Amino acid sequence: FTVLFIYFTCISTVQTTDCLHLREQCVNGGNGCEGVWNVVEDACNISVLGNRCKAEDSVECNRIIQVLADEYPEFKNCVCTTDNTCSITTLLGKLCSINKDNISMETKLQWGLSALSKQAHTNRSCLDVNRECVEDEVCNKQLSLYLKVCSVNKKCNVEGCQAAIRFFYGNMPFEVAQMMIFCDCIQHDESCHRAKELLHGKPCAITVVPPPSCLNVVQMCEENGLCRKKYATFRSKCWRHVTKKCYNDEACLETLLKDDVPCSATADCKAAYVSSWGTMLLTECTCQNVPPLEQPLCELFHHMLHSKSCF
How much is the pLDDT for 135? Predict the structure, then answer.
């Protein structure tokens, strides 16, 4: 019995050490993991200096840890998926404690947005959508975390903001996420446009100065595993004609005129578009200063990424 006790104690210690080492690699890796980890720290209230956390909302904390594990599978063995209150403890060992008094939060996450869901449809005013989210306890809690990470008052962490966008819209009921993403404003309503920028992460994750070419955006996306997967789904669900006719053949793509590229405009297409939020695909891009020979392909990519013809 003593030998078994020592064995399991050693295994637990090794796992905790390995997970902490993975965290260090994540923070220093420069592959986007740091951005997701920053959201984990905010959601789980982790003290960097003390290596301690007090997750006041264990459900919220565990959800973002699951996002971390989904996007960076090396963390899979550091996440407990059988008990809602154990994920953060498994990740950081005995350094972390969890407030278990918030068990009803799961129910709130599932049903608390029902009122917003009933009102959800496209092209609502972004100001009204923002106000309704703020007035809803669950939506406001998630919005606050998202805005904190995407704040431009301090130096903007683009990857962290993108991770927060994925987490925010991924946790919303699809109807609510769709309502927020497709909200709009009349031209001179400044308050509405400010609300739209906040909801869409524009100041931090969408606007880049100077704007990259759309060719570069697609190339960078293809080099990132998560983005590449979402782009492939978006292209197959929304732009089947492109996928069927040319797939990755750039010479073929260049022969397509954007007016001849129909969008499927299906429910699956909308879902794929919503899922692409929080990736570099949503970065505002341009085709100015692109060499003339590359102009048709660039304009095709701009049309596919930023045209609202689907919706």
Answer: 87
